[in-house]
Amino acid sequence: MLSILFFLSSGLFLGWSLGANDAANVFGTAVTSRMIRFKTAAIICSIFVIIGAVSGGAGATSTLGELGSINALAGAFTVALSAALTVLFMTRAMLPVSTSQSIVGGIIGWNFFAGVHTDTGVFTKIAATWVICPVLAMVFAFVLFFIAKFYVKNSKLHLFRQDSRTRTGLIVIGAFGSYSLGANNIANVMGVFVPSSPFKDLSFEGLFTITGTQQLFFIGGIAIAVGVFTYSRRVMEMVGNNIFTLSPISALIVVMSASMVLFLFASKELYDLLQSAGLPTIPLVPVSSSQAVVGAVIGIGLAKGGRNLHLGVVGRISVGWVLTPVISALLTFISLYFMQNVFMNTVYQ
Asked: What do you get for the CA distance between the two ends of the chain, in Å?
């Protein structure tokens, strides 16, 4: 049991890193605009991240499994640890990087080390979302800004009532975004452990069953929540203030846009509905809340004319996105060598 907990510790570390870097971005703009207190946002985010992880995390996880099925617990430990260290390094540099990119880089590093073929079609599908995700969020935010502007101009609400509605909207949409984040990004935290999961299904007198995968996702969800509480403020401030200064209504639009993007790439129900109707489907791929939020903030900036948009900060963040999968893949490959040849653990079968 102790050995299992040890190997899972890297997944927990990755979950903590995701909470510190990605999860709080769902509420980051709301906090930096002073509409919601950090503690309140962290509690709501944590609860709904865990619910989303347990109830809806299977879809995106299956896509990562197609990229590389890590069949040894020590190998999964090494991939998750390398991805977490990459995210931690970027977080300390105050860059809102993608945990999705980090874990994908780690899986590819394992594929190279184990001599496993990397499906270029699956990789292309995943990599395409790294561009589509921020662009889609930017478009949503751009359109929603003008809808909100029209609504505020014609509603003639008192300032206090407008603030109250904005605050309520931030809480509701943030909870929805947190759920979507848990459903989408738990694949990054615990997905590599699914093929070698040590947990067995638990059946409660035939009433319901908690699968081994759901147990993994629950543990990962708790790790994300801890990351939100302990280390997320720095990245919040980077996204919420440094790219473009946000008003409360703009913050609401950013949260809404990012939440919509996360939901689109997480909902298996939506995927099945589109497929049954013969329509093009949206891939079930773990995408980054950081990328979605950054894209949405840029969309708001463009809608306001782009005069105060800090393109230098955007460029610096983009460099971090490019470097993340490369660093993670290299670190994973080197770490696997030491895990197998120095610590004598089987990292692939």
From this structure: 21
Which pTM was predicted? 0.86
Amino acid at 329: A
> Torsion angle, CA of 77/78/79/85, rounded to 10 degrees?
110
Residue 344 lies in a domain: no
| Residue 348 lies inside a defined structural domain of this protein | no
Dist CA 13 CA 228 (whole Å): 12
For residues 297 and 273, give the distance between their C-alpha atoms in angstroms, rounded to a whole number: 30
Task: Provide the CB-side half-sphere exposure for 38 (13 A, CA).
Answer: 13
| Integer Cα distance of 40 and 43 in angstroms | 5
Q: 238: burial class by Cβ within 10 Å (0-12, 13-18, 19+)?
A: buried
CB 121 within 8 Å of CB 32: no
Q: How far apart are CA 328 and CA 302, in angstroms?
A: 33
Residue pLDDT, tens place only, 301-339: 899 887 777 777 778 888 888 889 999 999 999 999 999
CB 14 within 8 A of CB 77: no
Beta strands in 86-224 (DSSP E): 202-204, 208-210
Domain region containing 326: 7-339
| Closest to 94 measured CA to CA, from 300, 292, 243 | 243
**Is 295 inside a domain boundary?**
yes
Q: Strand 208-210 relative to strand 202-204: parallel, antiparallel, unpaired?
A: antiparallel
**CA 201 from centroid of its chain's CA atoms:** 26
Nearest CA-CA partner of 318 in 141, 127, 98, 137: 98
Determine, yes or no, domain membership for 124.
yes
How many domains does the structure of the chain reveal?
1
Convert the pLDDT of each residue in 250-283 to its tens digit. Answer: 888 988 998 899 999 988 889 999 999 999 898 8
Q: Please tell me the distance from the alpha carbon of residue 65 to that of residue 284, in angstroms, as a whole number.
A: 12
In Å, what is the CA distance from 334 to each residue of 12, 99, 328?
Answer: 21, 19, 10
Instruction: State the Cα–Cα distance between residues 221 and 54, nearest whole angstrom.
Output: 8
